[in-house]
Design a protein that fits this description.
Length: 149
Amino acid sequence: MHTGEPTTTSAQTGRPAHRVSWRTHLLGAAFYTAGTCGMLGGFPSALSGVGLGLGALLLAIGTIIVSRAQLRHHGRASSHPAIGDPRSLLSAWVAGGPLLFHLLLPEDTPVSVSVLLALLLGTVFYAVFRLQDADLTAQHPLPSSSSRG
């Protein structure tokens, strides 16, 4: 049982913690942005004809859920945030969210609206991830008294 390195191994299973690729996080952020713009009616006409608005949003939500499930499945439970390295979805969103909104919303939309929408959704991302990280951290001190996984 590895107790000296909770960031690289799971304290419960002793296996290395699985890290989701930064590409998965970036892809999730891009699809979420495109899906949100589609729902706001600002999707490019060539792509809105294909019907990618709601579908892209659902795909993005699925990507986020799958990546979080991978972290849980491989037993990562430590006091460190599961989503906290520079290549996280939140970092990708902060870096690319305003630009993606600016490109996908109608041309006459002010840049401040793009930045504001990205910051609002980034705040939601942050809150959800912190709640999930707190849940993972709370599970760490319980050795095996709870059989939930």
